[in-house]
Design a protein that fits this description.
five-stranded antiparallel β-sheet, Chitinase A, domain 3, Trigger factor, domain 2, about 45% helix, four-stranded antiparallel β-sheet, alpha+beta, elongated, about 475 residues, Alpha-Beta Plaits
Length: about 475
């Protein structure tokens, strides 16, 4: 085999590889002999078919098989001998080949850059910590008690009041014609819950059991169904039952419903859940600060094809958002060229951070174990209450699906490794400070949507996006918010 390097430019490498005809012929003959040992053709005993007949029958197919294997093996050998690490699958193009002649083909690839990892111990980061205020704990306790509330039909002849649950049948009409998704039967609606569009529930307050009520409402201008957005509609509603809600007391019995001994233990558990959420947010902000520091302190050339692939993936989501009318309003006002520049910078950051974390993980032998993957699978199953068995069966029947967890697990383990090396300075903050959008001006924080943080988060996802099972969305009627 003769390998000639034809291009060395930055991270791009190109080779011309020549494999002698004799080598191809030897491989073809060896494969034909192998096939002949078990070949069974009419008129011949198994394994006794003449080689001439085997060649006539199988040579064409074997030649294709041998060529493919030879190209792959020769490419791998050339890469190994030069100690190269391809960033993506090399591109191979056959230059010339005929049966009985030399095989000549070209190989083009981009290689991973040499990355000099800086002194991670010199990085200083701030870790935010927040404790759960007593009022937040009590509010959570009240919400928990509300989840255990029971609604019982009333026996007295009285009208429905705010806080009651009414069981209703309804049919929505636009210009007198029923519209799709606007009907429901036996629907339990708590008056004052805000479950239905504004104005709907208010018009049922004062209605008695058996009443027929015509509810008139105007759908919000931003309603997702464009044929109803901003339109005035009517709903023919029948009140079938009025139920009074009996709230559960915050007591030891409530704690026992939650598997705890008493209300004191429940309160402590609720506080722990709130603070666990705070810790998750703190972790996210700490990780983002770490990635910002790594991005700032490590600059190196990245493979152009990897950048192009990442940008194309991001841009596809932008185009889908445009088509669906869900593009960030801040982006809508920008020109396409400006948007592309912005998101290409995000793509570049993602690729660079991904390569950097991969190098840190490789050098420090960070591994994702089978146990790590199994824990991730169990966590995934917990996201689907009542469907855990189906999730387990899916992964059991599709072992390759477990690989979807590998990239994010590798990233988190690498981040954990780095955080053990950096200098961390803890700072106590209020929950409001912890939850605040770090990109929003302090004076506008209460009102500003957190879109800048979401956009920044795209840059913080260093690993390639993995396909994940989708949660089944609850189907709502058109009357629901």
């Amino acid at each position: 085999m003769q390998v000639t390097e034809t291009k060395t430019e930055g991270l791009k490498r190109e080779f011309n590889i020549l494999v002698p005809a004799a080598t191809i012929e030897d491989k073809v003959n060896a494969r034909l002999v192998e096939l002949g040992k078990n070949a069974s053709l009419p008129g011949f005993r198994p394994g006794k078919v003449p080689m001439k007949v085997i060649a006539e029958r199988y040579r064409s197919a074997v030649m294709g098989e041998v060529l493919e294997r030879t190209v792959n093996d020769a490419t791998a050998q050339a890469v190994k001998e030069r100690d190269l690490r391809p960033a993506l699958q090399p591109k191979v193009e056959i230059v010339s080949f005929d049966d009985g002649k030399d095989l000549e083909f070209s190989v083009a690839m981009e290689i991973l850059p040499e990355i000099a990892v800086g002194d991670l111990g010199k990085i200083t980061l701030e870790r935010l910590k927040a404790t759960a205020p007593a009022e937040d704990v009590e509010k959570a306790m009240e919400n928990l008690a509300a989840q255990h509330a029971h609604a019982h039909p009333i026996h007295e002849d009285r009208p429905a009041a705010k806080g009651d649950v009414v069981e209703i049948d309804f049919v929505g009409k636009l210009d007198g014609v029923p519209f799709e998704g606007g009907a429901g039967n036996g629907f339990d609606l708590e008056l004052g819950s805000g479950m239905f569009i504004p104005g709907f529930e208010d018009q049922l307050i004062g209605a008695k059991k058996g009443a027929a009520v015509e509810v008139k409402v105007t759908f919000p201008a931003e309603y997702h169904a464009k044929d109803l957005a901003g339109k005035e509609t009517t709903f023919d509603v029948t009140v079938k039952e009025i139920k009074e809600v009996h709230k559960h007391a915050i007591d030891d019995e409530l704690a026992k419903h939650e598997g705890l001994e008493n209300v004191a233990a429940l309160r402590e558990a609720v506080k722990g859940r709130i603070e666990a959420e705070f810790q998750q947010v703190s972790r996210q902000r700490l990780k983002r600060a770490l990635l910002d520091a790594l991005d700032e302190s490590h600059k190196f050339e990245i493979p152009p094809a990897m950048l192009d692939n990442e940008f194309e993936a991001i841009w596809k989501t932008i185009e889908e958002a445009k088509a669906n009318g869900t593009l960030d309003p801040a982006d809508v006002a920008k020109s396409e060229d400006a948007l592309k520049d912005e998101y290409r910078a995000i793509a570049e950051r993602r690729v660079r951070l991904g390569l950097l974390l991969a190098e840190i993980g490789r050098v420090n032998n960070i591994q994702v174990t089978k146990e790590d993957l199994q824990r991730a699978m169990f966590q995934q199953a917990r996201n689907f209450p009542g469907q855990e068995r189906q999730v387990f069966e899916y992964f059991t029947k599709n072992p390759q699906a477990m690989e979807q967890f590998h990239a994010p697990l590798f990233e988190e383990k690498t981040v954990d490794f780095i955080l053990e090396l950096v200098k961390l300075e803890d700072r106590e903050v209020t929950p409001q400070e912890l939850m605040a959008d770090p990109d929003a001006p302090a004076e506008a924080e209460a009102d500003k949507p957190k879109k800048a943080a979401k956009k920044k988060a795209k840059a913080d996802e260093a690993e390639a996006a993995a396909e994940k099972p989708k949660k089944a969305a609850k189907k709502k009627t058109a009357a629901e918010e």
